# Entry
Amino acid sequence: MGDLAVRYWGSFFICALLCVVFQIMGMKSDTANNAVKSTSSSQNSSLWTKFRGFQVNYLTVFLLAMFSDWLQGPYVYELYVSYGFNQQQIAELFVCGFASSMIVGTFAGSLADTVGRRTMCIMYCVCYIIGCLTKTVPEYWTLMLGRFLSGVSTSLLFCAFESWMVCEHFKQGYDSNWLGDTFAFATFGNGLVAVVAGLIANSVASSFGFVAPFLVALVPLTLVGLIVVSSWSENYGNQKMTLMSSMAKSFDLIRSDWRIASLGLAQSTFEGAMYSFVFMWTPALKSDAEEQGEETTSAYLGLIFAAFMVSVMIGSSLFKMFSQRRDMLYKIPIVLHLTAFASMALITIFFEYKIIVYTMFLVFEMTVGLFYPSYGVIKSEKIPEDIRSAVMSIFRIPLNAFVVLLLLKIKFMPAYAVFMICAATHFFSFLCYMYFYLNSRTFDKSEGPGDEGLELLGGSSAKDNMA
# Structure
């Protein structure tokens, strides 16, 4: 077994072991919490049981939607290459996807508040199914249409589903503290389905060609649509608002409340740097020395991806453990932003030492596992219910702008320079979150104690907005 095999297989098993250990620790914590619930009134026990059914239903839909997305990701570029498109044309197709998510996707996401979140989740399925079908046609403008629809779908995936779940959670009267449990399971499950989707995509692509994963994705997309239609009730932000008034109110909120603006910037810049990492991790792990050897990193890309996803699952498990203490919830992003910055900075400094680069990649993926559930809970408490989807869509504008700009310029930059930009971006993200955190605490002290779930931070909760 060569050095690379030992490195990548060894890291995978170590990460898997850590994931199991942290999951067991999290389950013990859950068992203790459930024991407390079981000693409470039968009404609370019944509500908890009902919540578990609601949670399983949402996670099934969300993870199927993510599964369909993961199936397609690894083979978009290879499919375009197999159709004979050059680098410039492929770059244009990718830019179209992010641009449509930034511009059209923002308005489509905002529509969820006025026409209904359930309706827009169904539209996600329709748009993505059409987008997948366009992949069967090796014609530039047809594929451009597919990228356009895929960009809109991506925007809906990351705002409409979460907005529906948060609204329904409070509408059913569930405890706000249970939200973190749902977000943690969603992040953990996302890492799991990503690994499974990668294996399935690899298998069908090898047997039936690069278009096969896109056709397989039609199955989970159809299931998502059927489950949403048959089991989800509709919920809205504010039906009386038009699309433009919803957008105007969202922009007014962000412009007038710098705490919300800084929270959105922290999220956008973290995700922007994360997508940059997605583009660059493969070339960053390859060394000049291995080109002369028999063993290459390219032979282990699937294994490396699996190790990344297990690292994400470790992060979500850590979130479940630490978020049990309410006073820790808003401190978790401070740690994850600093860790993300440190990992990217070390990659820049030690770029030629690939084992350090790989280790820092794993550490960064753990911060991703912490990022999604922690920000999910924080946004559920800080963003008003009537414009939740619109605000979340606006948060994605700087993210997509950053990625589009990077895609246009990345071919002119060496790999280490891209990671230097990522490090600077993560530090900026940390500063934005610290502004949000410190100013929210100052606000809370000046206003006096508020809702039990918001003792650290000022502002109305999502539960208040439902009233």
Remarks:
- The two ends are 63 Å apart (CA to CA).
- The chain has 19 helices and no strands.
- Residues 445-467 have pLDDT under 50 and may be disordered.
- Residues 3-38 form the longest helix (36 residues).
